[in-house]
Design a protein that fits this description.
This protein is mainly alpha-helical and 118 residues long. The chain has one domain (10-117). 82% of the residues lie in helices and 0% in strands. It is built from five helices and no strands. α3 (56-78) packs antiparallel against α4. 8% of the residues are buried. The mean pLDDT is 77.
Length: 118
């Protein structure tokens, strides 16, 4: 592998620095989004349910959804590879976000079950 990098004129140390920099940026921005989302989900669930006592159900739903999809996604990722597995995970997340957005802002709909599913 090192020989292949030398043939195409790539400095291994520079490549590693760039890779780590982009991984850090992706991880930090992703975790910041998750942290902000947890607060918003609690507020939105409280609004949809009309009760501050039940507002934690939104965050509990998020944790339950993440836990229930992690193992099947890992199993799927092992067969065809990480890129396809990550693509599938992003598509599932996008569908869930769309469902939650429709439930929260869908005019008169304001459905907690749809929000919970998303």
């Amino acid at each position: 592998m090192v020989g292949a990098l030398a043939v195409i004129g790539v400095d291994r140390d520079e490549l590693q620095r760039r890779t780590l920099r982009s991984l850090r940026f992706g991880q930090v921005s992703g975790q910041a989004a998750v942290a902000g989302m947890v607060a918003v989900v609690s507020l939105l669930a409280g609004d949809l349910l009309g009760s501050d006592q039940l507002a934690g159900m939104g965050s509990a739903s998020f944790a339950l959804g993440a836990a229930s999809t992690a193992i099947p996604l890992v199993a799927f990722t092992r067969r065809p590879g990480r890129r396809i597995g990550r693509t599938r995970a992003l598509l599932i997340g996008a569908l869930g976000a769309l469902g939650a957005a429709i439930a929260a802002t869908g005019g008169q709909l304001r459905s907690f079950p749809l929000f919970w599913w998303g």
